[in-house]
Amino acid sequence: MSAERVVLVTGGNRGIGRAIAERFVAEGYKVAVTARSGEGPMGTLTVRADVTDSAQLDAAFLQVESTLGPVEVVVANAGITKDTLLLRMSEDDFDSVVATNLGGTFRVVKRASKGMLRARWGRVILISSVVGLLGSAGQINYSSSKAALVGFARSLTRELGARGITANVVAPGFIETDMTAELPAETQAEYKKSIPAGRFATPDEVAGVVTWLASDDAAYISGAVIPVDGGLGMGH
Ligand code: NDP
User: Fold this and answer.
1) Where are the domains of the chain?
2) Which CATH class is domain 2-228?
3) Is 111 left (phi over 0), alpha (psi -120 to 50) or beta?
């Protein structure tokens, strides 16, 4: 069945989103990625879209729908950080992170849900973060936007659960991507000490959980938060 499903991953040109797109391709799905720059991995359809712009997203969806068919699995992955302590955080630092991480998810999932409702089948997978539930000094904007995705998925589950649509959150810990490469070496070493697994994860370790959530085996899981964090959040 999975081979016939159409997947859209936002921010699929690099990092975790790229690894997720690669996994779906390997499992035989028809895969599209949104990218502001660059291209998705081999075997994917790349469509241009900034997730803060509904018109661009609508055009991207139309392109995916006309090329591959209606989107049945959507992975809201695109995200940014603008870290600083609360007293130094500007309104723009706050608003831009929320507009991308939470607003982007709203725009993408709203658009995707139309086709899912028609098909009476869908998988909505939101990429949150361990810091959404654990909190993180210097990340009031980011952690708030990521915590909000839990309420989002649970409300969506209540709205659309009876229509064959599931909505779940994946909460990665520290994953080796450009986002964590920006952290100073001492900070990375400090974080590793607090992770029971003693290491960061590869993007592929997140991707495997996402493809599993899209599979028929996960049909009865909805409103869940699945941590992929080496024990950092102790299951939260
Ligand atoms: P990267 O910084 O490596 O990649 C971010 C991706 O999001 C890029 O493809 C980027 O596109 C895209 N993106 C950012 N803003 C927008 C926008 N406005 N419109 C469209 N695309 C956008 O991040 P990661 O791969 O590390 O992170 C992916 C997701 O996982 C994020 O939501 C992040 O918060 C989350 N996460 C990451 C963790 C980590 O340790 N790395 C831990 C927990 C969660 P472009 O190339 O054009 O900038």
Assistant:
1) 2-228
2) alpha beta
3) alpha
